[in-house]
Amino acid sequence: MKDRLKDKVIIVTGSGRGIGRAVAVRAAAEGAKVVVNSVSPQKTCEAVEKEIKDAGGQAVSILADVSKEEDVKKIVAKAVSEYGHLDIMIANAGIAWAKPVVDTTLKDWEHIFSINVRGIFLSDKYAVLQFLKQKTGGKIINAASIAAHDGFAGLSAYSATKFAVRGFTQALAKEVAKYNITVNAYCPGIVDTNMWDDIDIGMAPILGLEEGKRASFEMFAGTVPLGRAEKPEDTAALITFLASSDADYITGEAMIIAGGVSMV
Ligand SMILES: NC(=O)c1ccc[n+]([C@@H]2O[C@H](COP(=O)([O-])OP(=O)(O)OC[C@H]3O[C@@H](n4cnc5c(N)ncnc54)[C@H](O)[C@@H]3O)[C@@H](O)[C@H]2O)c1
Fold it and tell me: What is the CATH class of 9-194+231-257?
């Protein structure tokens, strides 16, 4: 399945590791020109750029914070200055942690919303503005989660951000369909990434498990009907499909890819 994204210019936010990295690598292998982004440290972003180039692909990287408007403008400007235009925005950057609501501070709440929701709003807004400027269509693909369909105890703030992404994705899809811009979201399940190190700190005590051993990840992974945790490459396969012309007639969807762990 080579060249499905041949010469497409694609931004993948939060692609220094995890799902974003897998998407960036897969998109480049499918012929795309990739803008790799992460917030810190710089070396993660540059390492993914190098990995793609070493494999014969095309990539540039930019350190930028998706919660900051000027930074998001710079990410889009980087795509245009390097490759001339933009075709696809993968708004992937996100954070997660687990805490009971009674222990969640206003600062916690606002911080997670600033990345998981404001970051998506800004990424999508500046992608749409670029598509309109080019007078082309375009594709936007947002990071949601199974937690966008089903709330999880201990993940109230995270679940709230992902439900917000799903609603925003639907509304924006309706708004920009007339410009041939599609907007979809992907909803992974239990993906084996470093994000679970962050979740486990709060989730292990909530579940009565030993903290620091990714016990909560193992517990949730053990509930997956297909019998294994999700790999970032599994998620990247769906995202690559949504970014390809095979998905031209799909918009406003929040597609679950979770090995059966959520079937809502
Ligand atoms: N891992 C899972 O089980 C899972 C499940 C469902 C949804 N998701 C979602 O998928 C997306 C990627 O998750 P992951 O597991 O790969 O996470 P991860 O923590 O492994 O990687 C996240 C990446 O985002 C970057 N990032 C964080 N804040 C940023 C910011 N403000 N600006 C720019 N980049 C930023 C980090 O530098 C990192 O490169 C997230 O939106 C997450 O909520 C993950």
Answer: alpha beta
pTM of the entire predicted model: 0.98
Distance CA 166, CA 184 (A): 9
Q: Residue 129: its pLDDT value, please?
A: 98
Is the CB of 123 inside a 6 Å radius of any atom of ligand 1?
Answer: no
Give every CB contact of residue 90 below 8 A, 6+ residues apart in sequence: 10, 11, 12, 13, 15, 20, 23, 27, 141, 239, 243
Residue 17 CA: which ligand 1 atom is closest? 39
3-state helix, strand, coil in the chain (%, to 5): 50, 15, 35
Average pLDDT over residues 101-120: 98
Residue of 12, 195, 214, 234 to test ligand 1 pocket, by largest number of atoms within 8 Å of CB: 195
Phi, psi of 183 (to 5 degrees): -135, 120
Residue 264 pLDDT class (50, 70, 90 cuts): confident
Distance CA 111, CA 104 (A): 11
The yes-or-no answer on residue 78 being catalytic is: no
> Pick the catalytic residue: 78, 83, 99, 158?
158
pLDDT at 1 over 60: no
**Element at 49 (helix H, strand E):** helix 42-54
CA of 1 to the centre of ligand 1 (A): 26
CB 129 within 8 A of CB 176: no
162 part of the active site: yes
CA distances to 99, 104, 207 from 202, rounded to whole Å, are 5, 11, 9
Count the Cβ atoms, other than its own, within 10 Å of residue 175.
12
Range with the lowest mean pLDDT among 39-43, 48-52, 124-128? 39-43
CA distance 86 to 73: 13
| Spans of all domains in the chain | 9-194+231-257
